[in-house]
Design a protein that fits this description.
Two copies of one chain form a homodimer.
Chain A lengths: L1 E2 L13 H9 L4 E2 H11 L4 E2 L2 H13 L3 E7 L5 E7 L1 H25 L16
The structure holds a DNA duplex (30 and 30 nucleotides).
Chain lengths: 127, 127
DNA sequence: TCCTTCGCCTAGAGGTTCTATGTGAGAGGA
DNA sequence: TCCTCTCACATAGAACCTCTAGGCGAAGGA
């Protein structure tokens, strides 16, 4: 996974690709190419999924039993390997998403208002 | 850097430690021990900074000219190396913080409402 | 002296991502 | 048939960060 601009090559959020793949598969089975495109689109092209990251990640997820795969035919009539979420994968996704929220919140707390570009609300009463 | 519970050892947000160190030094010069404690405290103990991550990170930052160090005496009367933010370091922090916000936002968009534990608002008219 | 605490440091392993490259098959034109 | 483009999967090697586990030296109290 890389950013659009890639000012630095290596990724800042290593380890989140697996989570994003699992999240994408909640919408149904898909093959590698499609998964990558969906992640890029739903992130407004901020995240770019490289093949060299994607396929190792898919194999990782399958090894761990979080996705299952089967060969099929793509919408372009090509042979493609389709992946779908397993029950264990759904549980893993829940755990990872919770973990991500906690981490992102914590990092946000450390950063405070530094680096915000006006996208944070002033306060709004809090919860 | 690790989480408090460490369900998995390896870190989900690799590469953010440098940014958090720089952010901490905005408040003034500090030595390693203190930096780690400040990050842990300001994250409400969600983030834990291991020494094996901290010192390589500090050396990295110094090599790149983003912090400067000098020996001194700690509040406990021990010899300690104090770090402070350089001008370049401040610029780097701004860039990294912007990058982080963009990435975190993007990942949030991909996740959608999945994994939220009730901390997101229902909608509120949008912007 | 012994022990604890503070504070710095490093080696090695583990894991993820990137770049670069290779393979095979379908579609379309000549 | 031949050629080329695109789709789709796959791997090797390097680069990078973090963790575990350990070592070193000095201050302070018993």
């Amino acid at each position: 996974m890389a950013q659009g601009r890639k000012p630095d090559n290596r990724e800042m959020v290593q380890g989140t690709l697996d989570m994003l793949i699992l999240r994408t598969l909640v919408g149904g089975r898909a093959h590698g190419h499609t998964i990558a495109q969906l992640i890029e689109q739903s992130s407004d092209d901020v995240l770019q999924v490289e093949q060299g990251s994607l396929y190792p990640a898919l194999h990782r997820l399958e090894d761990r039993g979080w996705v299952a795969s089967s060969w099929g035919t793509s919408e372009n009539n090509r042979t493609a390997r389709f992946y779908e979420l397993t029950k264990a994968g759904r549980g893993q996704l829940t755990r990872e998403a919770d973990r991500w929220r906690a981490m992102a919140d914590a990092i946000g707390r450390v950063l405070g208002d530094f680096g915000t570009r006006g996208r944070r609300k002033p306060k709004e009463s809090e919860g």
